[in-house]
Specification:
Length: 247
């Protein structure tokens, strides 16, 4: 039986409206712990999933992609979470240093070609991370952006050949913050300064009045996703991907 065949439609229907512990327990019961990986970008939703995960199985690997240009508040949050839960984060990074990237592709790639920059610094490290797992747990939600509206609780991710589990798919931002306050979960202090979604400091800004959660990311660049959850369309990035896979 292939991994993809392990997701019969009735499982998805059953888990679609299930509470997060039921979803995570299903994963925990059907896959070896070392084959389950939870990725976090240290966002508010990630804090909710991690809090639940620690109640289900503390040994499930938790990893993050370190682009090297995360906010200092994000690294501080990582350290606070490690202290609170005793979790040891696994860090994945790009093969290229920022200096090597600049030498190869020119300065400020996040402005000249942000899809390629995200591809090098995020997508390729994620691919390396997921090569170790059969199941990828994420914290994405349908209400975060139009690109995420069709997110299902259990999906097959063909790019990385893993089962993708999105236990917060049906949650709203309000539900996330209510849970954070009720459980006193550590969160990034930048949220208190008006940030709605927090990534690399090169490409993240605080929200303006009336903007939705992710509108502070890649402001003015016409980009809404980094490519971790939804592929970018940039042909250059795809050709680089082919090179990386073939080498
Ligand atoms: S978010 Fe910006 S700096 Fe970070 S990898 Fe993507 S383009 Fe580069």
């Amino acid at each position: 039986m292939t991994k993809k065949q392990l997701i019969p439609e009735q499982i998805n229907k059953k888990l679609e409206a299930a509470p997060i512990p039921d979803i995570l327990n299903w994963v925990n019961e059907h896959f070896p712990t070392e084959k389950i990986g939870f990725s976090t970008g240290f966002g508010s939703s990630g804090g909710v999933v991690l809090d639940h995960l620690m109640q289900v199985n503390k040994n499930i690997p938790v990893f993050y992609i370190d682009t090297g240009v995360l906010f200092r508040e994000t690294y501080a949050l990582r350290d606070r979470i490690e202290k609170k839960y005793g979790v040891r984060f696994i860090r994945y990074r790009a093969d290229l240093s920022w200096a090597e990237q600049e030498e190869k592709f020119g300065p400020r790639l996040w402005e000249s070609n942000p899809d390629l920059c995200c591809h090098i610094r995020k997508v390729l490290p994620l691919r390396e991370a997921l090569s170790h797992y059969e199941v990828w747990i994420t914290a994405i939600r349908r209400d975060q952006s139009p690109t995420r509206i069709n997110t299902r609780v259990i999906e097959w991710e063909p790019r990385f050949k893993v089962i993708k589990v999105n236990p917060l798919a049906a949650w709203t931002g309000d539900m996330v913050w209510r849970y954070i306050r009720e459980r006193n979960i550590p969160y990034n202090k930048l949220y208190d300064l008006g940030y709605g979604s927090i990534g690399c400091f090169n490409c993240t800004s605080a929200l303006r009045a009336g903007e939705s959660e992710r509108e502070g990311r890649w402001r003015g660049l016409g980009k809404t996703e980094c490519g971790l959850h939804f592929p970018t369309t940039d042909k250059w990035a795809h050709s680089l991907e082919t090179q990386e896979v073939d080498r």
